[in-house]
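Minutes, project check-in

Agenda point 3 was the complex the collaborators sent over. CS summarized: four entities, 272 residues total, and the question is how they sit relative to each other. Sequences were read into the notes so everyone works from the same version.
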Amino acid sequence: MANQRLTIGELSKAAHVGAETVRYYERIGLMPRPARTAANYRLYSAEQLARLSFIRRSRELGFTLDRIKALLELAGDRARDCQAVDVIASDHLAEVERKIADLTALRRTLRDLIGQCRHGTIADCRIIEALSPVPA
Amino acid sequence: MANQRLTIGELSKAAHVGAETVRYYERIGLMPRPARTAANYRLYSAEQLARLSFIRRSRELGFTLDRIKALLELAGDRARDCQAVDVIASDHLAEVERKIADLTALRRTLRDLIGQCRHGTIADCRIIEALSPVPA
DNA sequence: CTTGACCCTGTAGTTGCCACAAGGTCTATA
DNA sequence: TATAGACCTTGTGGCAACTACAGGGTCAAG
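CS then shared the predicted structure for the full assembly.
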């Protein structure tokens, strides 16, 4: 009963990942090549569904496919020290924090700029002015 | 004296934009086709340098090339109401704010996850566990 | 036996560039 | 005058992570 095999469409629905995305994951080696029916249809196992779900969750957390590949390799090695996992996650967190900092600075600049808008003509628009270079 | 024309390399240095990027902007219609020397070298005017600098500043603020194109069109129309500029900038700000919100939620999740790490084996790694689907 | 929903492969588009390759040009120096 | 090296030209392909076809094959229901 654990042998229920899924077509790509069924897998796709179960994992909430587009079928074309699944094929893409296969092409880049993130998902294994599945079994095939006589008619060359892909057939997925429960384990492969679990793998795809893992990928989807990781993507939701913003991990890159490269890092997800690394996480999946680690996940298979149950006896191993989980420090490597920690490193990947911490690196990712650091990147998220950097992006937040960048975007926060950007938000400030944009708010200032928009706040200065006097709603007149382009000729005295502060936004355009801020973007325009000073004539040398 | 206002007639000083620049090669793509000179333009590139002056505006702090890669030469290949300038050619790319030309291809997509963001920069105009410049004059050419007898040897087919591109020659840029001061006005074109100003346009490229405008683009660079706008990119630094995270505007997409499409929006920059729109901003440049508006910027040329000095008598026009600057409301359209305000709309573009405000839309952009809204997107930045959305991204900050998304990333902030992500940061929280990642921090929680990493904080739960007990530094044992993969088998009881909270991070891997959180990513793994519950077996049905 | 046909309709419609599924599946297949392969290719091209998205965004904003960067990195070649293979050639032409220009300038300075030996 | 020859030549080295820095510049310029076009065209192509790559990056991330998909998405959207086109042009076919397959399968189950009515």
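Noted in discussion: The CA atoms of residues 15 and 37 of chain A lie 21 Å apart.
Follow-up: revisit at the next meeting once the mutant set is ready.
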